[in-house]
TrEMBL record:
Protein name (database record): NADH-quinone oxidoreductase subunit I
Biological function: NDH-1 shuttles electrons from NADH, via FMN and iron-sulfur (Fe-S) centers, to quinones in the respiratory chain. The immediate electron acceptor for the enzyme in this species is believed to be ubiquinone. Couples the redox reaction to proton translocation (for every two electrons transferred, four hydrogen ions are translocated across the cytoplasmic membrane), and thus conserves the redox energy in a proton gradient.
List of residues binding [4Fe-4S] cluster 1: 53, 56, 59, 108
Entries under PANTHER family matching the protein: NADH DEHYDROGENASE [UBIQUINONE] IRON-SULFUR PROTEIN 8, MITOCHONDRIAL (PTHR10849:SF20), NADH DEHYDROGENASE UBIQUINONE IRON-SULFUR PROTEIN 8, MITOCHONDRIAL (PTHR10849)
GO biological process, one term: aerobic respiration
This protein's record includes keyword Membrane: yes
Subcellular localization(s) per the UniProt record: Cell membrane
Organism (species): Kutzneria albida DSM 43870
Binding site for [4Fe-4S] cluster 2: 63, 98, 101, 104
Subunit text: NDH-1 is composed of 14 different subunits. Subunits NuoA, H, J, K, L, M, N constitute the membrane sector of the complex.
Amino acid sequence: MGVFDPLKGFGVTFSTMFKKVVTEQYPEDYRPTAARYHGRHQLNRHPDGLEKCVGCELCAWACPADAIFVEGGDNTEDARFSPGERYGADYQINYLRCIGCGLCIEACPTRSLTMTNFYELADDDRQRLIFTKEDLLAPLLPGMEQPPHAMRLGENEQDYYVNGPELARKAGEVAQ
């Protein structure tokens, strides 16, 4: 340790004493983030309101921090949440574990999971930092129906997704 090291530290302090102070009005004025900032996750929807998540659990497998839990469910004719056979019935992200790496985004085959620029994720209650599907789903646009509702696919595709490929092939509507 040098004799002049404390004087170097005081020099840094002394040089900043005469600079102009910059105060950010944080709660009122948000500081813009970079365009590719990884913030809070969002489960996206199709334009008609159906969920894009098909419950494949690839995001949970790709997460190195084991922060994502997905449980898939089967769509029925009465309750349809996504255009395919399955949907994400239970979806949770634990932000106490999430490291914001974005590997879950890259693993998603339907582009249903994205990350927003929202960065206020601090809380004093651990339970509120476990976001459920209702917290993560993108809001419905005005005029959209609440799911479940009719499928957005054509008649041939509806028959394929609702009845399965075997019955659709028997009816001769889907050629493979």
